[in-house]
Design goal:
The strands form 3 sheets. This protein has a 6-stranded parallel beta sheet with strand order 3-4-2-1-5-6. Strands 9-8-7-13-14-15 form a 6-stranded parallel beta sheet, sandwiched between helices. Strands 11-10-12 form a 3-stranded antiparallel beta sheet. It has 14 helices and 15 strands. Helix 1 links the parallel strand 1 and strand 2. The chain has 2 domains: about 160 residues, Phosphoglycerate kinase, N-terminal domain (Rossmann fold, 3-Layer(aba) Sandwich); about 190 residues, Phosphoglycerate kinase, N-terminal domain (Rossmann fold), CATH 3.40.50. Helix content is about 35%, strand content about 15%. By secondary structure, the protein is α/β, with parallel strands linked by helices. Bound molecules: adenosine monophosphate (AMP). The site of adenosine monophosphate has 18 residues, from strand 12.
Length: about 400
């Protein structure tokens, strides 16, 4: 069975109710939770939403989560700002329900207008993350056809991304965000153009171990940066001072360094360190870090070595910053490599909130072949070749 997208001829929705899952988990202003600080997540769904509306459905019922209210009604995580923004950009009325279980929803569905209904934050209900059967059934009762365009949550088996599909049988479709993500990720998972190189950074080896194990036999080189580098250095017997590192990560790094493809792993040769997270930056031009120092960025030698290596690549995957890039003193490595990717002729795929925001800050996001909307989801896709939400669209979900 194959995955059908909304541009498939069988997507017939005129006069029907379309239940859509989007990822409207937008960042809100910390001082004023009515203000969306970056509308990208909503903007990206507009082609799907407008396409569906042009097909004259009787209703579009939108579902999303926002933040982590942990199964409780937490007003700061309300979708009010999203409803307001959607009404503005669509130039039509958007009604936000009080909760996703509101008894008034059924009445609303029977009225001629409005066409667009946004269900309040799904994660106000613990049933959402539990993939609860009855909650899935209730959500499914709102629509005749189901569309998923929330790639960033497809790795979660939640009611709105998974359980709900048990009630739609063949009437499930992927939206345009999903279509684009899958096409781009398949260029990495299926037949990446060689040389294929992965640049992995961020905080913890344990978070990315499975994807490293999956990538190692397929990449030509795996370049490690960020705090992920220190467990590898420690495993090789180098001193890492007070750098971020756990024993679990050191033993994972050891096993990777014993892998038959270990010679593909590249580790920083030098570092930018400091006494504290806000201290003065200092360069260490060797692998070992003094006892009283914290490693906070890759050094200049490593940057030029990685730059030269990536210059040979035809495919590059990047996930995770090369250092504590939120502090300008330790951001040079991350920004230098963002520039390398932006200038590369290779197929470049970037995932993970931090790498994406580094690219956006450097103004070079446009030069990347594909920026994934889901960091965790894109890594899991690479690891397993698919995601539960996508498998559900392809093969259906058992009741
Ligand atoms: P991740 O979510 O695993 O991609 O980790 C991203 C976080 O790792 C960012 O907040 C970075 O600031 C942090 N990070 C990267 N390198 C370091 C480092 N050398 N020391 C401390 N934190 C780091």
């Amino acid at each position: 069975m194959s995955l059908k997208f909304i541009d498939d001829p069988s997507f017939e929705v005129e006069g029907k109710k379309v239940l859509v899952r989007f990822d409207y988990n937008v960042p809100l202003d910390k001082k004023d939770s009515t203000v969306i600080t970056d509308t990208t997540r909503v903007d990206l769904t507009l082609p799907t939403l407008k396409y569906i509306l042009e097909k004259r459905p009787s209703k579009v019922i939108i579902m999303s989560h926002l933040g982590r209210p942990k199964g409780q009604v937490v007003p700061e995580f309300g979708l009010e700002p999203v409803a307001k923004y959607l009404a503005q950009v669509l130039n039509e009325e958007v009604v936000l329900t009080e909760t996703a279980k509101d008894s008034g929803i059924k009445t609303l569905l029977g009225l001629n207008s409005p066409r667009v209904i946004l269900l309040q934050n799904l994660r106000y209900h613990p049933e959402e993350e539990k993939n609860d059967h009855e909650f899935s059934k209730l959500l499914a009762s709102y629509g005749d056809i189901y569309v998923n365009d929330a790639f960033g949550t497809c790795h979660r088996k939640h009611a709105s991304t998974y359980g709900v599909m048990a009630f739609f049988k063949k009437k499930t479709f992927g939206g345009f965000v999903l279509k684009k993500e899958i096409k781009a990720l398949d260029q990495i998972v299926e037949n990446p153009k060689k040389p294929f190189m992965a640049l992995l950074g961020g905080a913890k080896v344990s978070d990315k171990i499975k994807v490293i194990e999956k990538l190692l036999p397929n990449v030509d080189s795996l370049l490690i940066g960020g705090a992920m580098a220190y467990p590898f250095l420690k495993a090789q017997g180098h001193n890492i001072g007070k750098s971020l590192c756990s024993d679990e990560d050191v033993s994972l790094a050891k096993s990777l360094l014993n892998d038959k493809f270990a010679n593909r792993i590249m580790i920083p040769q030098d570092h930018v360190v400091s006494q504290s997270l806000n201290g003065e930056p200092e360069t260490i031009s060797e692998k070992s870090i003094p006892d009283d120092k914290i490693g906070l960025d890759i050094g200049a030698k490593t940057v030029s070595q990685y730059k030269e290596k990536l210059g040979q690549a035809k495919t590059i995957l990047w996930n995770g910053p090369m250092g504590l890039f939120e502090n300008q003193s330790f951001s040079k490595g991350t920004y230098a490599l963002a520039e390398v990717l932006a200038n590369s002729d290779a197929f470049t795929l970037v995932g993970g909130g931090d790498s994406v925001s580094a690219l956006k800050n450097s103004g070079r996001a446009e030069s990347i072949s594909h920026i994934s909307t889901g960091g965790g989801a894109s890594l899991e896709y690479i690891e397993n070749g698919s995601l539960p939400g996508i498998q559900g669209l392809k093969f259906g979900v058992e009741l």
